[in-house]
């Protein structure tokens, strides 16, 4: 059922993605483990490429376990939680073990044994950020299982792990204790029931430090991988392909938004609060009503704004630039307030530019490179988020950059 699938984070791996993941299992591998085997699509892809490899796995859903086992009788799939089941790998299969995984993306109740998994796999991480996410523990156990024999881990993680600030410490530890070989951004909508963006991590556990990383993008429709960057990464640096694309724009910049005396604030009231208080606040959905980049907003008098101190610092006025801060299906184009005066919600940024810099900033926002740069700094799995810090560091795109782009 759909509700069960969502609760368990069950989204089966499409065949093209499964084949890509299986392709990283090296020759000479004696056993491959999948801790969240599902319908065995990953293990079937491995079996098709490595006929002599022993296959092991776990699956918590009894119905899916039976279906997966019947589709791959040669595999030893145990019923149970992949974070807890003790795998009984035959001695003959235990010389070169690798792991493939598309773990559940969901929150979980954390047990002492799970905490130990995390501390063993990431010994230099002490943060509590992200500690309730099940996929983090599946990554930890996968690393520990493969590391016993120096195997490869090919694991599909939510993009939040690749680009989110809260996982920066885990990325840093991963690069310091293992060799991260590749990070492959898998485009959204690959999984039919979710729009989650994902990143495939290929990790060599036989090495204790990352030297060079290849970052690429996989197009499921064409089945092709496009390499975006290959080289050194700073400790904990973001792993998404669009971020690496945006680095070239940032490197070319002679001036940034913060250098021009620009101020940026976000609203402090939610959309629901604005409706409950009957206040005419501008939300992200309102920005889509703009015509030719300009928007007329509902007028709130200065007297009313001053009487309601809650909104006093988050009012948008004529000439202000508004930009969505977060959302899923929103307009990511900067919108100029043509007329009116009203508060903004906490999903909207208000950008104010000194008069003498307005034309320069307007040209930068309209520059062809702006959309690519904005995509490179945005974060998130389903909903996308940009930060004030990112915006203040925005390059002021000039004609020279336009030619380079």
UniProtKB/TrEMBL annotation:
Phylogenetic placement of the source organism: Bacteria, Pseudomonadati, Pseudomonadota, Betaproteobacteria, Burkholderiales
SUPFAM superfamilies assigned: DNA methylase specificity domain, S-adenosyl-L-methionine-dependent methyltransferases
Record InterPro entries: DNA_methylase_A-5, Restrct_endonuc_typeI_TRD_sf, SAM-dependent_MTases_sf
Single GO molecular function: methyltransferase activity
Record key words, sorted: DNA-binding, Methyltransferase, Restriction system, Transferase
Biological source species: Duganella levis
Keyword Signal: no
Protein name per its UniProtKB record: N-6 DNA methylase
Domain named DNA methylase adenine-specific: residues: 4-221
An example Gene Ontology biological process: methylation
Claim: Transferase is one of the keywords in the record: yes
Origin: domain of life: Bacteria
Assigned protein family: Belongs to the N(4)/N(6)-methyltransferase family.
């Amino acid at each position: 059922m759909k509700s069960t699938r969502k609760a368990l984070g069950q989204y089966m791996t499409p065949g093209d993605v499964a084949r890509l993941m299986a392709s990283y299992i090296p020759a000479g591998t004696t056993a491959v483990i999948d801790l969240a085997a599902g319908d065995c699509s990953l293990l079937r892809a491995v079996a098709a490429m490595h006929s002599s490899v022993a296959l092991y796995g776990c699956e918590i859903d009894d119905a899916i376990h039976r279906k997966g086992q019947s589709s791959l009788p040669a595999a030893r799939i145990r019923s149970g939680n992949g974070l807890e089941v003790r795998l009984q790998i035959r001695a003959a299969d235990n010389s070169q073990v690798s792991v493939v995984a598309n773990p559940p993306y969901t929150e979980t109740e954390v047990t002492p044994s799970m905490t130990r998994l995390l501390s063993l796999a990431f010994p230099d991480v002490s943060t509590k950020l992200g500690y309730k996410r099940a996929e983090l523990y599946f990554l930890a156990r996968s690393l520990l299982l493969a590391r016993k024999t120096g195997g490869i881990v090919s694991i599909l993680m939510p993009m939040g792990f690749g680009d989110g600030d809260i996982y920066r410490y885990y990325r840093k530890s991963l690069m310091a204790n293992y060799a991260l070989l590749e990070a492959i951004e898998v485009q959204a909508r690959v999984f039919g029931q979710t729009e989650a963006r994902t990143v495939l991590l290929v990790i060599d556990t036989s090495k204790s430090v990352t030297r060079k990383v290849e970052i690429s993008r996989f197009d499921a429709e064409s089945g092709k991988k496009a390499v975006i960057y290959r080289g050194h990464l700073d400790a904990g640096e973001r792993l998404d392909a669009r971020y690496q694309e945006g680095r070239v724009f940032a490197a070319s910049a002679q001036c940034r938004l913060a250098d021009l005396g620009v101020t940026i604030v976000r609203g402090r009231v939610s959309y629901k609060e604005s409706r409950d208080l009957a206040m005419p606040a501008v939300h992200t959905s309102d920005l889509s009503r703009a015509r030719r980049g300009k928007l007329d907003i509902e007028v709130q008098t200065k007297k009313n704004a001053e009487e309601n101190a809650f909104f006093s610092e988050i009012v948008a006025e004529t000439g202000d630039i508004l930009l969505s801060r977060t959302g899923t299906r929103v307009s990511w184009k900067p919108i100029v307030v043509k007329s009116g005066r009203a508060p903004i919600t906490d999903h909207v940024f208000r950008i104010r530019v000194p008069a003498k810099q307005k034309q320069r900033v307007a040209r930068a926002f309209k520059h062809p490179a702006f959309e690519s740069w904005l995509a490179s700094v945005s974060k998130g799995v389903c909903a996308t988020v940009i930060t004030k810090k990112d915006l203040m560091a925005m390059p002021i795109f000039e004609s020279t950059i336009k030619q380079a782009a």
